[in-house]
């Protein structure tokens, strides 16, 4: 029997300090004891906007002035299916307080931890936290050269790095990944390792990236929920598998023809948008991408763009 779909209006309220307002669910409630973004179920015949206004007034004693649709997420719990209609609230009047006796607090977006929230909120948090630029490391001469290029990238503002080093030994990879992690932490950046789950488990990196080949060898998520899981996808079957293993980030390629794969035609922006239209997971466009493509990618539903040559070259010059 199909579970009924529960429509929910969700408010991500952001202040000028890049903090969001969260509230604690009562222990007796569904998903009790976890933090959540304010909101609630739509009443019969009620629009999402009207539900947001009502819920914010009832829960927090504030009046909604301005909001923008952010994303829609369908999530199947064991006992119910929920459809989350998420809006970013950029303006309101009043001073928030827990009208129903619930604990509330402002928390930095960067410090939000998905394990403290209902599972359906995981991709929302990642979408708020992840940057528009995803750097994949390219060619380098030696370890010193790699670290210099990486630090130049980090100084230029890169916050998400995939370490991709296919032509070095496993021992060298592990040694270099530790140095890369220390550098990334210095600049408050996230380091993902393009490796096997077995190699990744020997490191303290912030996340794992899987090739599309490794993606299909797995039946379940190979890393804990406190680590990012990024995957490469090229087809609808890849995306389906990414969802199955609960990936946090998808790289979808090729969007354009690339210098590394000349003659391989990209899918183009319209097909890209169609591919990801029903994906809640943050998606980065890959293949012929550069800084100038970020707003185009976002317009077509992406989190941003990922690149090897263009971002790595930028880092060398700086």
Please give the structural blueprint:
Elements: E1 5-13, E2 19-24, E3 35-36, E4 39-41, H1 48-60, E5 63-76, E6 81-93, E7 104-108, H2 122-129, E8 133-136, H3 143-155, E9 160-163, H4 170-186, E10 190-194, H5 197-200, E11 207-210, H6 212-215, E12 228-233, H7 236-244, E13 249-252, H8 268-276, E14 283-286, H9 294-299, E15 304-307, H10 309-317
Parallel strand pairs: 1-6, 8-9, 8-15, 9-10, 10-11, 11-12, 12-13, 13-14, 14-15
Antiparallel strand pairs: 1-4, 2-3, 2-7, 5-6
Report on this structure.
The chain has about 325 residues and is an alpha/beta fold. The chain has 2 domains: about 110 residues, Alpha-Beta Complex (Nucleoside Triphosphate Pyrophosphohydrolase), CATH 3.90.79; about 190 residues, TIM Barrel (Alpha-Beta Barrel), CATH 3.20.20. It is about 30% helix and about 25% strand. It is built from 10 helices and 15 strands. The strands form 3 sheets. An 8-stranded parallel beta barrel has the order 8-9-10-11-12-13-14-15. Strands 4-1-6-5 form a 4-stranded mixed β-sheet, covered by helices on one side. Strands 3-2-7 form a 3-stranded antiparallel β-sheet, with no helix packed on it. Strand 10, helix 5 and strand 11 form a beta-alpha-beta unit. The longest helix has 17 residues.
List keywords for this structure.
318 residues, alpha/beta, Nucleoside Triphosphate Pyrophosphohydrolase, TIM Barrel, four-stranded mixed sheet, 10 helices, 15 strands, 29% helix
């Amino acid at each position: 029997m199909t579970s009924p779909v529960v429509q929910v209006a969700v408010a991500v309220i952001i202040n000028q300090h890049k903090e969001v307002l969260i509230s604690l669910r009562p222990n007796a409630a569904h998903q009790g004891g976890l933090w959540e973004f304010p909101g609630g179920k739509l009443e019969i015949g009620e629009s999402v906007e009207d539900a947001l206004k009502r819920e914010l007034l009832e829960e927090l004693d504030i009046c909604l002035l301005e909001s923008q649709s952010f994303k829609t997420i369908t999530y199947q719990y064991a006992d119910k299916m929920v459809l989350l209609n998420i809006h970013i609230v950029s303006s309101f009047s009043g001073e928030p307080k827990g009208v129903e006796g619930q604990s509330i607090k402002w928390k930095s977006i960067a410090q939000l931890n998905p394990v403290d929230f209902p599972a359906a909120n995981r991709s929302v948090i990642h979408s708020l936290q992840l940057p528009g630029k995803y750097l994949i490391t390219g060619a380098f001469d030696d370890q010193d050269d790699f670290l210099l290029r990486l630090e130049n990238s980090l100084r230029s503002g890169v916050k998400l790095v995939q370490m991709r080093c296919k032509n070095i030994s496993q021992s060298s990879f592990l040694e270099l990944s530790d140095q890369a992690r220390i550098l990334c932490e210095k600049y408050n950046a996230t380091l993902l390792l393009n490796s096997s789950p077995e190699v990744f488990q020997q490191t303290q990196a912030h996340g794992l990236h899987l090739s599309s080949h490794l993606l299909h060898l797995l039946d379940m998520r190979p890393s804990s929920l406190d680590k990012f899981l990024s995957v490469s996808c090229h087809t609808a079957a890849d995306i389906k598998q990414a969802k199955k293993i609960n990936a946090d980030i998808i790289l979808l390629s090729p969007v354009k023809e690339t210098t590394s794969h000349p003659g391989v035609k990209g899918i183009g922006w319209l097909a890209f948008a169609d591919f990801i239209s029903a994906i809640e997971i943050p998606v980065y466009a890959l293949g012929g991408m550069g800084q100038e493509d970020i707003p185009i990618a976002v317009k077509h539903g992406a989190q941003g763009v990922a690149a090897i040559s263009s971002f790595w070259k930028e880092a060398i010059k700086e």
